[in-house]
Amino acid sequence: xxxxxxxxxxxxxxxxxxxxxSYGSRCVKPPIIYGDVSRPKPMTVFWSSTAQSMTKRPMKGxxxxxxxxxNWSFVRNDQPRHETCYQIALAIKDEVExxxxxxxxxxxxxxxALREGxxxxxxxxxxxxxxAVHSFRITNCGVQDSTQIHTHMCYSNFNDNIHSIIDMDxxxxxxxxxxxxxxxxxxxxxxxxxxxxxxxxxxxxxxxRIPSTDEIADRINKMLAVLEQNILWVNPDCGLKTRKYTExxxxxxxxxxxxKLIRSQLASAKISEEDYVKAIKEDIKKVVDxxxxxxxxxxxxxxxxxxxxxxxxxxxxxxxxxxSYGSRCVKPPIIYGDVSRPKPMTVFWSSTAQSMTKRPMKGxxxxxxxxxNWSFVRNDQPRHETCYQIALAIKDEVExxxxxxxxxxxxxxxALREGxxxxxxxxxxxxxxAVHSFRITNCGVQDSTQIHTHMCYSNFNDIIHSIIDMDxxxxxxxxxxxxxxxxxxxxxxxxxxxxxxxxxxxxxxxRIPSTDEIADRINKMLAVLEQNILWVNPDCGLKTRKYTExxxxxxxxxxxxKLIRSQLASAK
Length: 572
Fold this sequence. Notes:
Layout: E1 10-13, E2 20-21, E3 27-28, E4 32-38, H1 45-52, E5 60-64, H2 66-71, E6 74-75, H3 81-101, E7 106-110, H4 125-139, E8 148-153, H5 162-168, E9 172-175, E10 197-200, H6 213-224, H7 245-253, H8 258-267, H9 273-294, E11 299-300, E12 312-315, E13 322-325, E14 328-330, E15 334-340, H10 347-354, E16 361-366, H11 368-373, E17 376-377, H12 383-403, E18 408-412, H13 427-441, E19 450-455, H14 464-470, E20 474-477, E21 499-502, H15 515-526, H16 547-571
Parallel strand pairs: 4-6, 5-7, 7-8, 8-9, 9-10, 11-16, 15-17, 16-18, 18-19, 19-20, 20-21
Antiparallel strand pairs: 1-4, 2-3, 12-15, 13-14
């Protein structure tokens, strides 16, 4: 895949440096679909045909499917999503037919994000899957029977949508399955007969570890215990193309935060430790002053220092970048041994920030479950034991933050739900130890210290009791792109009783919402939540946004909060 075809479609616009993750370690600049989609000319045909001319073996043409393109784009909102998807499908159909004419007999149309696009409401699943499957079938409805159509799907539980996968009518489906139990594949032969080729990943390409021949052979044998040998394809669990650091560096350079540059200079001995501390203090002061000028109630210090690398039992790669969430890329740690905290990690910087203001300064930490789920984890002990070790290390940090004068401490559990096992029967045990880990982190603080947590965009209905059991004083959630009715779970059926901060605007977009727009959203939230528990905040951290975007957006948010407070006061 030396050429990407997305930028050759009409109706798409691309940013210069708007990097976000695609999947795995791949970062892309997602397109903005602003108009009708079409294919002015062939996109991958020349390169695929050139490659085919170099070998007598089948050369696979590689395309991204319409549903995945849709789900990984900023989509126009002046027509239904499925209509846009059909337009993309017709454009890809033209490409598929030209690939076939160019001598390509095997064409893969990846639908890695098919399941990712499922609506939160289960009642809407059927309609989504109908048009998603129809879009895929449009792409290859004109090819000969002799042309083999493949598709690829990411790590998922296929039980609840196996019939839709069958309806896609692909000749071969490859799936990212190396990190799951082979028994999950039984859905392809139990209850329904898939009848086409299946290629579960035989090794995990996300790890730098090289599996032995015997190890892969053993995995294949386990698959053959579930699948018939005439349908099994042997392949890695995902594409092997990763970007070199030298390719990504120019684009990332424009996004580098000043503090990140300072850290780099310290690491390369270009500045002294004293100069580094001075520069970071100046950076924190700038962040504090901006928030005070905007009249924000509870401040943050901008997290100029990362604390993960200060924990024992962790190792870090030099250039092993993968996505964390949104547009944030990190080098995930490798947990190789027992975890502990040799010394305070964020206390100095948080206390320094608190000394610059009379307003509450929030200490910011990542929770143990999220650290675990975003790391390569040792496999010589149960995951929950490793999680408890991380929790105890963070507990020490939380207590030192409290002693250092920090009265509001946020322990992010953005990936709590992400770690749920595929088998529903295992959810209860996972949630038990996940909640217990979180509670360990703050079990030693005073009642006067306010504990916050943050969770990413999710459907909380099935884990609301676990969220309540976490016993946080305030939970902020990434909710700006969903319906306010989803918040009703916090007051219907169960009484949450603590503060809730649903995101009032989407930080993943450079767009600046108006005061009226944010006020309208707050009013919609107040139709579902009680006013005494509602916190007004962005839906996630602002590190990926420029100051020119952050300042006006936060000003409008504060103005909207003041407007609603005034309206509520006058209504009494």
